[in-house]
Design goal:
By secondary structure, the chain is an alpha+beta fold. The chain contains eight helices and 22 strands. It binds heme C.
């Protein structure tokens, strides 16, 4: 009884303390949140990089007038954690990432309460100034050492989405190490038609023909453009390779010549980084990069693929990759121990419209000993339950076209020597122990 009373007293007390000043209200979760004081700061931090004019989201969420008609829908999307997009399964595995955009439970509660109270504006003068964004076409990596422009592609005023590839030369005859890289649509009109684009370095055969596939360099999607690698690390760009841009463009009601370019910064010629960053398509079934798939009409199938790491490694990133039928993927490590131990590291939902990178935080990045096997499990749904499925009455197999399927994971990692691995594991244990004490 006594404890209950003092608890109530405490709650009352903190409610009173909360009244003056919106900063305090925000920190503790106001009972009467307003747009100006409580909701706008959340939207500006977590939503408007996409939800503003000229970006990928369907509506701008900056002013009260813009936000008010969407209040119900916003409540629904944040309560279900559909927005901001982050498809990681929260029940399984590692949960701390460098790029997790999720709202806190408290922020969600603030938005829900605000909508339930009729979405009041509050005092307009309390609305913070929205953050300034760099112009969408600015180089975020400084003036690049090398700019590679792909041939322009004419996107008609109307029509289905366009998927394809463009090739151009890097013009490098020796290996270089990339320290930062960015894809940039050239000009505002290009930016409006580019849905997303992936860049690769493609080897040529002796006849100078492109070998397809290639080494993945960087992804472009609105809101995500530049990659700057941590100090001491670099991504190998092999000499004499071609640049391939795999694109997804869409029509916007007027004909547009879409142009894209890659900006790249390098380590000085002849120098090697301490750590080489790899990014590869791993875990396709039957040892094939894209996997061997056999998906009967109307059914959900599961694909399993395995890749052995011959050296110890620090895993920095994973990104599930499937096409329209992809629904869910898990990555597991099978350690070279006796008895064998396996661990599900992460699982994530999949939606073909979103190619999400999960970048591990420095102190959660998996450290794996040499001989560890990566096991990738992917679920592909060819039934009517899958809204992304264009034709549930057809068999689907693996292939390059959008209507074919793929199932693998993009994995980013650095090789470690056995000594580096032991040292990193020891350092990790030490810092965890410190944190616990
Ligand atoms: C990475 C970009 C991005 C971020 C960040 C983002 N959104 Fe979205 N949002 C989109 C896109 C694209 C769509 C439309 C396609 C879809 O629903 O997947 C969308 C759709 C929505 C919709 C549904 C619109 C409709 O037509 O019904 C709501 C509501 C919404 N977002 C709210 C938010 C809120 C609130 C936040 C921040 C807490 C947020 N979004 C963060 C990109 C984003």
């Amino acid at each position: 009884m006594r404890t209950t009373q003092s608890l109530v007293a405490m709650l009352l007390c903190s409610a009173v303390l909360m009244l003056p000043g919106s900063a305090a209200a925000q920190a503790t979760g106001s009972e009467e949140p307003t747009f100006a004081s409580d909701v706008a700061p959340i939207l500006y931090e977590s939503c408007i990089k996409c939800h503003r004019t000229g970006q990928i989201a369907p509506m701008s969420l900056i002013t009260y007038q813009e936000v008010r008609p969407w209040a119900r829908s916003i409540k629904n999307k944040v309560e279900t954690r559909a927005m901001p997009p982050w498809h990681l399964d929260r029940r399984i595995g590692i949960q701390v990432f460098k790029n997790d955009p999720s709202l806190t439970d408290e922020q969600i509660a603030t938005i829900v309460t605000w909508v339930d109270n009729g979405a009041p504006q509050g005092n307009p003068a309390d609305t913070p100034t929205p953050p300034e964004f760099a112009p969408a076409d600015a180089w975020q990596i400084g003036e690049p050492d090398l700019v590679v422009r792909f041939p322009a592609y004419t996107v008609p005023d109307a029509g289905p989405d366009i998927f394809g590839n463009l090739l151009t030369e890097f013009g490098l005859d020796e290996d270089r190490y990339i320290t930062a890289i960015q894809t940039r649509p050239v000009g505002d009109s290009s930016r409006r038609v580019v849905h997303h684009a992936l860049s690769y370095a493609v080897e040529q055969n002796e006849e100078g023909e492109s070998m397809g596939g290639g080494l993945f360099l960087v992804e472009y999607a609105s809101g995500k453009q530049a990659e700057i690698y941590p100090p001491g690390s670099g991504l190998l760009l092999p000499g004499n390779t071609q640049a391939r841009l795999s694109f997804h463009l869409h029509s916007i009601g007027e004909e547009i010549d879409a142009a894209m370019e890659l900006g790249i910064n390098f380590l000085p010629k002849g120098t090697e980084p301490e750590f080489i960053r790899y990014s590869k398509q791993l875990g396709g079934s039957q040892g094939q990069i894209i996997g061997v798939l056999d998906i009967p009409a109307g059914e959900t199938t599961r694909s399993d693929g395995y890749t052995r790491f011959n050296k110890a490694a620090r895993i920095t990133m994973f990104q599930p990759h499937m096409h329209m039928l992809g629904r869910y993927q898990c990555i597991e490590f099978i350690y070279p121990t006796q008895p064998v131990r396996a661990e599900t590291v992460n699982c994530a939902g999949f939606d073909y419209n979103w190619h999400m990178n999960y970048n591990y935080a420095d102190d959660t990045a998996p450290l794996i000993p040499a001989g560890t096997i990566l096991h990738v499990t992917s679920w592909l749904d060819n039934s009517t339950n899958n809204r992304g499925n264009i034709d549930p009455s057809n068999w689907v197999g693996s292939g390059q076209r959008t209507i074919d399927e793929m199932a693998f994971a993009w994995i980013g990692w650095y090789d470690l020597t056995d000594e580096e691995y032991e040292a990193e594991v020891a350092a990790r244990q030490e810092s965890r122990q410190k944190a616990e004490n």
